[in-house]
Amino acid sequence: MPSPRLRFFALVALAASLSPLGTSACTSTSDSKSDTGVGAIVFMKRVHTVADGQGVRINVSGGNGQVIDYERYEPGGSLALLTPPRADGKLVNLTAAFPQADLNGVDVSFDARQAVFSMKKDKDDRYHLYTAQLSEGENYEIHQLTAGDYDDINPIYLAGRRIAFVTNQMYTEMGTRSDEYEHARVVTQLATISVDGGDADRRLFSQNLSHTVSPFLRHDGKLGYSRWEHLGAVNDVKLFTANPDGTNMIAIAGEHGKPSNSLINVREYQPNVMIGVATTRNRTIHAGALIKIDARNQADPVCLDAKANQAGHACLDEEHVIYTVLTPDVPTMSTPSPAGRYREPTVLPDGRFLVSWADGPVNDLSEQSETPPDFGIYLYDAASGRNQLLYNDRATWDLGAVPVVARAEPPVIGDLAGRQDTSLPVRMGSIDVTQTSLEDKVSGGQFKDTPLRTALKDAVAVRIIEGFSSEAAKGVTMFGLTMHEGAAVLGEAPVYQDGSWLANVPPYIPVHVQPVDKFGMSIRSQGLWIQGVPGEDRRCVGCHESRTGQGVPRNGQNPTIAEQRQALNFVQAVGDRFELPWDKNETASKPYVQQILSAKCASCHNASTTTYYEVSRTDPGTGQTTPYKIPVLDLSDTKITAYYDQQVKEWNASYVSIFYPSAMEMGRVTVKGQVPKMWGVPGSARESQLIAKINVKAKDGSTAWPTPLHPEDKGTTLTDEERRVLILSMDLGGQYFARQNTGFVPFTSGNPVAPGTKY
């Protein structure tokens, strides 16, 4: 008797052999005369169920466990052209010459004569870019554009015969960026090629520490894209835009709240008005609710008129985006859906949308229950909220439908990257750090619920911090008991009397900034990575100024003081950048935290003087409960074992004492006893109780807290530099490891980075 899996596959195969069309759900209709208003569509067919010598294999979540992963491969996919796009249309397999292929992204050229797509020809290949002519008279001719030992996916056409896409190409001599939070997943970055030159004209954009995916074309010729933003507690997918040469990377939606964790599969259909998918970060197979994203400046009537001339108007307002969930019955989390889930909407000329839709719960549990979701191509009408079935092959996922119709080509934007020397730095700075639109409050030290715009008046410098991930730390997949990646201080630029600052930093790398006060503590830690290409000027008005207003220096139209005194140079070799590991540093001249705690603190705060509380973790698979004793305040280097982020590892008792309370995963561990104070708050020294206890004295003799300096009140002295090290440890995110103590041999001033090295 055949197994349940074989019986299931036989049913799927039978259904597919009877008809390429699936049945409609209660929210959809089927009509063989469906009219999309276009002559043809091109889309991808991707296999999810395979029968082989081992039986039946259903691959739903492979490579798609997170919302923007890309590694899922099953043979038998194809690029399909359907003319006209309805049940009785002619279906052409454009990639019939590659029967073991899989596809990962497709777009149609502005003149509608060509498609660009990503294809992996067989299991031994990588995803690369190809073009296919869409005319039978041209024999649907296919040309390969990219090659190499990396994956290129999600291509789109840009103006000026260029193609943007995402790639996991090795970016630095240390390797491809590897997202630390997800334990060394190789992440994707943006790149472009030309239609005519292919890899001969390949350019990589600046780096992010997590995935970049799903680029889309904007009305102004720029590209938009989804970016997984992970910086400490920030862990979501936002929308960004950039010029086609990689300059001016800025957020366009998702930074100031959204109805879901992630915004993906976005397409613009009016200037700054988009449709996309709202979903959670994992377990939904890239699928979710359809959402309208309106990022127009609502205060300017010109910006609300799609036909008006918007020149000179600040029409993008990412701070006040309006989100409208078009399919409210579809959850934006990973919970089972009563109305299926959507993927990859694209826009038809009449304003309706082509979508991929599958009925049922649509998450990776579908794989475990041997019922893979069935994505077909539908016509979605936002006015009625209904789907109309166009095509569905039950044996494949039918995804990424694009209308084959000519469209206007946006303007070509100037190409900075094509002209500049790659060794040039990026210039960063602010006109006036106190100009902010954020309503945050600041507490700790001299502040108590102080408005950010007031607290920023205390800024005396801006700290610039490089971010790096596990490709730079051999054998390390987590930098500590916090969700912060690796960090290196590039420098601290002084804030002058007019609030200005200016610095030159290395190109391509992700950085974030912290305005700091006279005590050396961050006033607010920026929660967004920023980066630039060589020669780019990334100066802003202030610390998140109004996105629709005009920023003016305090001294009128005159150059800022920072400009008059010129930018500080923070470009230096990797090994010369200041990193701060907790324990041990192979570079003798650089400090580490434990040596201070052992010399000045552990004699009073150790295993014999501390108390303990207990946490326990129950394994969801075996049901076995394991207890762990956590010291309240043991500042010695004694090794203890702790559970964190699904791993059991050994750490210094001091490190666990200080950071476990703030890093504790409620819901994954059970606490017995009273949780101690937040001795260390990753990213915020001023909120860390350890810093409040030792207190800090500025050069003018004032202290941050009205309490005695400690341990001076017990007869031991901490130097100003030792206090700075402890403050930096908190402000940088509480890393345990750094590049210098993980076996990585860094570049140093004696062994500098070669000119043009993108790091």
UniProtKB/TrEMBL annotation:
It comes from the Bacteria. Keywords: Signal. Residues 1-25 form the signal peptide. Gene3D superfamilies: TolB, C-terminal domain (2.120.10.30). Pfam families: HZS_alpha (PF18582). InterPro entries: 6-blade_b-propeller_TolB-like, HZS_alpha_mid. The keyword Signal applies. The keyword Endoplasmic reticulum does not apply. Residues 474-545 form the Hydrazine synthase alpha subunit middle domain. This is Hydrazine synthase alpha subunit middle domain-containing protein.
